[in-house]
Every structure is written in structure tokens, then in C-alpha cells.
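Example 3.2
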Amino acid sequence: MALNLLGYENAVSLRKGLNGWAAVGGELVVESTPQVVMGAFPEVDANLWTTVDAYLSSLPDGFGAIKADDLNVALAENPPFLLDVREPSEFEAGTIAGAVNAPLRQLGDILDSLPEDMEAAIVVFDSIGHRGAFAAEALQMLGFVNTRNLSGGTDAWVAAGFSLGQ
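Structure, written as C-alpha cells:
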């Protein structure tokens, strides 16, 4: 996401990361790879670079993720604002109780629905954690400093033995 914000047009994220690559039989190597020839860099807005650099330089432990068990405890002790960034059809099939739905592409449209306190706890999620990570990063860069992404998304929530409501 940060590379796309900075103007790189072909930067993509590998779904489920290295674990996903290995799961489909992708080869993992341990030796150094040959040096890549760099192409032209996009022109980057200096203010945007400062924001992205500050964000990446100060990532919290766990990279802003929260595990299902820890979210379950938080829901009982001090419930965060829950933001489901899946598509409406996914949301309607079941979500974590109390969640608000705003598909990732519409995140900017619901900013005024988020807690006014920029330090309030917000947990975003999707099915596997991918879209949730994008949403959490965007919200953190906008100043919602206590935003976390549910690691593994609703898949991890259900795998941990918790249910999705309607």
C-alpha cells in the first residue's frame, strides 16, 4: 500500500505472504538473489513521503496486529470500535458482533463515523487480514493511532473458536 501511495503502479502484495507462497509449492531459497536493475522512480510528493516514512519508521510491535484471543479479551474488558472492511455480501454472511461494515474501497466515505477520539481503540478486519491491514495502515496514517488489524481476519477468529453473528 505504501508503495502504491508513493506512485509505484505495479506494486502488489502476495496474498497470505510467504506462507501462502510455500502453501502452493512456491520455492523458497536462502541464498542471495542477483541485484535487480532499478528502473525510473516515480516523482514522490515530499509531504506524502514524510508521512509514509514516519509511519513505517514507527510501526508498533506486531506491526499493528491483534490476535483473535486478544481481541476476544478486549471485547469483554474494553470493547474497541469494530470495522469490517469486507464487501457487504461477506458482512451479511456473518461478522463479529457489533461490527460496522465499510468495504475497503469506501473507507474514506465513513471517516466521520469513526470515534472522534483519535486515540480510541479501533480494530479492523476482513476475511484473512489483507484488506484489514490496508485499512489499518490508512487509518493510522490519518492519525487514528490505536488502530489494529485482526491478524488472519475472520478466518483466524473462527479458527480460534469464536463465532460470527448475523
